[in-house]
């Protein structure tokens, strides 16, 4: 990052002149992207370097590195259309190179390629290219490239909300151990998003929380996004995230709308929920979480019902409708069906008396007389014991730490002794003959 | 005009006439012939070549597929609906920039959402919903389907059934009938758990039967556990209260042994 700040036009020109022989094709192409104010300086350099070295054969890695530097410079200067052109040229060049040593640089280049197109809003154009590059990377066993390109493709599909296609790609692409922590975090985040939309909330929660944990501390924006989605998934699962989640350093402002949303869900108040959703609707639409928030309505009603069922032993359905603030045409009948469904799903423990029109909550029996505590304890004990076993297995002792290191003299002494012993044995053999 | 294009247009006119006459067999035959002819055009997906007649061909193909979808609803064939809808989708998504918008687009999208709901494919329902723009979500056909899904999830089944009266177009009726049947099964399931008993007239009303006989037949076929006594439907047989529970000894023994084993391992 420190290098990135120092990237200025003159520095780049000087480096290009040093690395690539001026007048060569790559040099011309790259230099064309840099601003022309330093023309006289460039000419000066050209004159000197031409006199110095006849012909330089630059390593392909050096060339790709130059491409990368110019690309970063252009993006930092916000010259996105030029960055697009430069990145397309670099990708075309990369398709011809088949060297493993270029892989790491190549993956960075793919990333900036996709970034430059995204910043100009043309992501759909490069989808075909990215797919072809992914095929090539798989054929060449370029694992880092495969990882990067898979993430870029997923990002491409998710940008246009094409969750179906993203899932198809992800399930069919070859999987292997992650090489780069950052790419793995990104992959987990995209996976979490896809799972959320497909209503598989438990898997989604796991992926999103793992992504938020593994992400480097400096990646604040990424962690904020992960946390936003993780909060919504937890609300959809029916659990309320703790307050400390919202109070993490640097994320308080961004997570404020979600904090108020959690509050509304926790209280179980439909009116409050609706007002919060409307108040922050722009934030939610820009985060693309709007559809998920709509799904939360069901959870709000459930929580409200649960509160009512715990607090009242018997309550008329009309009062239930009023407390839940159901604003529909026929609230009592609605309330009755909603309560019936909640009972069937096991959310509340009650019965309905249709003739009198009220709901009777069942007494929660003494839970300690059942097997429940034993089962809960057992799962916790098993978890702790598993963790202990895993920790023991993961203990690694540094190799040879219990042997003291031989110093050079001791080694010489030992070798001398061994030689004498060998001579001695040889003499003994001779004696025997 | 291109002779192929002219032939397809003529055949399409015959198809529309057959549909208006409600002549299902002719419709199906003509439709198969049309589909074979459409493969001759290279401007259609998946090739999307830019021929001079491209716009005309694309519009014609889109109309043909829309009519195919509506025909499949009329004959009640859900698989055909799914096939034709998948063929129609690229016209709405990829070719939408080149063609003028179709008047029936939202209705067909709404029909598809309804079909996914009836088949209980909620994950795909939501995936499709993500693809819709915010203007699409304002359209009454689509809004109807979305609100239906919400009521279904919340459990307000009476709202689902009353929505049957407020369908935006007649073609929705087929799916609404299927939905009514699903809803009835759901209501039966919920009532079983929620009510101890219900009078026969109340049960009839809730399950939307028009006469007591239908109700009795339904109970005999679908719900053999329900008993009918003195004009009331009893849902749950009287359970013995506070049955003395056996201690699950085998499970406890297994657990304790595993604790002992693990503890021994700790050095």
Automatic annotation (TrEMBL), chain A:
Entry-linked Pfam families: PCI (PF01399), Rpn3_C (PF08375), TPR_PSMD3_N (PF25573)
Q: Where is the PCI domain?
A: 185-366
Chain residue ranges for the region called Disordered: 398-433
Mark out the compositionally biased spans (Basic and acidic residues). Answer: 401-426
Keyword list (alphabetical) reads:
Proteasome
Under SMART domains, the record lists: PAM, PINT
What family does the entry list? Belongs to the proteasome subunit S3 family.
The cross-references to PANTHER family, in alphabetical order and at most eight, read: 26S PROTEASOME NON-ATPASE REGULATORY SUBUNIT 3, 26S PROTEASOME NON-ATPASE REGULATORY SUBUNIT 3/COP9 SIGNALOSOME COMPLEX SUBUNIT 3
Q: What is this protein's record name? A: PCI domain-containing protein
Automatic annotation (TrEMBL), chain B:
Q: Which Gene3D superfamilies match?
A: 1.25.40.990
Q: Where is the PCI domain?
A: 79-251
Q: Which UniProt keywords apply?
A: Proteasome
A Pfam match is: CSN8_PSD8_EIF3K
Taxonomic superkingdom: Eukaryota
User: Any keyword ATP-binding?
Assistant: no
Q: Which family does it belong to?
A: Belongs to the proteasome subunit S14 family.
**Protein name stated in the entry:** PCI domain-containing protein
This protein's species is Hevea brasiliensis
């Amino acid at each position: 990052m420190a290098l990135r700040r120092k990237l200025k036009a003159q520095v780049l020109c000087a480096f290009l002149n040093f690395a690539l022989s001026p007048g060569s094709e790559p040099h011309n192409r790259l230099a064309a992207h840099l601003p022309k104010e330093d023309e006289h300086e460039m000419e000066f350099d050209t004159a000197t370097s031409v006199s110095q070295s006849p012909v330089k054969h630059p390593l392909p890695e050096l060339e790709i590195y130059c491409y990368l530097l110019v690309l970063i410079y252009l993006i930092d200067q916000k010259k996105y259309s030029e960055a697009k052109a430069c990145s397309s040229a670099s990708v075309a060049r990369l398709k011809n190179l088949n060297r493993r040593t270029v892989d790491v640089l190549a993956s960075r280049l793919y990333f900036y390629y996709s970034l430059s197109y995204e910043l100009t809003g043309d992501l759909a154009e490069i989808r075909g290219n990215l797919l072809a590059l992914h095929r090539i990377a798989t054929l060449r066993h370029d694992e880092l490239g495969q990882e990067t390109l898979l993430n870029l493709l997923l990002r491409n599909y998710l940008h246009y909300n094409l969750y179906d296609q993203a899932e198809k790609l992800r399930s069919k692409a070859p999987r292997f151990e992650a090489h780069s922590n950052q790419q793995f975090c990104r992959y987990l985040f995209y996976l979490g998003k896809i799972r959320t939309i497909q209503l598989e909330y438990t898997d989604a929660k796991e992926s999103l929380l793992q992504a938020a944990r593994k992400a480097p501390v400096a990646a604040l924006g990424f962690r904020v996004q992960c946390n936003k989605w993780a909060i919504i998934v937890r609300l959809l699962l029916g659990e309320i995230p703790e307050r400390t989640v919202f109070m993490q350093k640097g994320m308080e402002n961004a997570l404020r709308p979600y904090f108020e949303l959690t509050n509304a869900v926790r209280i179980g108040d439909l009116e409050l929920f609706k007002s919060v959703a409307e108040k922050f609707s722009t934030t939610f639409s820009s985060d693309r979480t709007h559809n998920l928030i709509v799904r939360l309505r069901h959870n709000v009603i459930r929580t409200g019902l649960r509160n009512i069922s715990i607090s009242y032993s018997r309550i008329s359905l009309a009062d239930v409708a009023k407390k839940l603030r159901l604003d529909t045409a026929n609230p009592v009948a609605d309330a009755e069906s909603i309560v019936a469904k909640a009972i069937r799903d096991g959310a509340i423990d009650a019965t309905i008396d249709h003739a009198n029109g009220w709901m009777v909550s069942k007494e929660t029996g003494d839970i300690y007389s059942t097997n429940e505590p034993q089962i809960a304890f057992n799962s916790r004990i098993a978890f702790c014991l598993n963790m202990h076993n895993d920790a023991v297995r993961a203990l690694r002792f540094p190799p040879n730490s219990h042997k003291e290191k031989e110093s050079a003299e001791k080694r010489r002494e030992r070798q001398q002794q061994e030689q004498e012993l060998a001579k001695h044995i040889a003499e003994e053999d001779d004696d025997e003959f | 005009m291109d002779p192929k294009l002219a032939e397809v247009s003529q055949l399409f006119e015959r198809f529309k006439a057959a549909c208006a006459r409600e002549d299902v067999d002719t419709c199906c035959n003509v439709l198969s012939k049309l589909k074979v002819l459409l493969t001759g055009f290279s401007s259609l997906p998946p090739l999307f070549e830019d021929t001079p007649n491209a716009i005309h061909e694309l519009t014609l193909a889109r109309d043909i597929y829309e009519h195919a979808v509506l025909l499949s609803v009329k004959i009640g064939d859900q698989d055909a609906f799914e096939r034709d809808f998948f063929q129609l989708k690229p016209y709405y998504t990829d070719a939408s920039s080149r063609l003028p918008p179709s008047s029936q687009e939202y209705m067909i999208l709404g029909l598809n959402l309804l079909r996914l709901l009836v088949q209980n494919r909620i994950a795909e329902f939501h995936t499709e919903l993500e693809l819709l723009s915010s203007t699409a979500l304002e359209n009454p056909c689509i809004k109807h389907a979305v609100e239906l899904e919400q009521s279904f999830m919340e459990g307000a089944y009476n709202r689902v059934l009353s929505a049957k009266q407020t369908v935006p177009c007649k073609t929705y009726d087929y799916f609404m009938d299927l939905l009514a049947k699903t809803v009835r099964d759901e209501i039966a399931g919920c009532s079983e758990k929620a009510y101890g008993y219900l009078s026969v007239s109340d049960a009839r009303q809730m399950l939307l039967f028009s006469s007591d006989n239908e109700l009795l037949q339904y109970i005999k076929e679908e719900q053999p556990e329900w008993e009918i006594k003195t004009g009331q439907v009893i849902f749950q047989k009287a359970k013995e209260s506070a049955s003395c529970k056996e201690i699950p000894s085998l499970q406890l023994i297994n657990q304790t042994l595993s604790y002992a084993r693990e503890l021994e391992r700790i050095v």
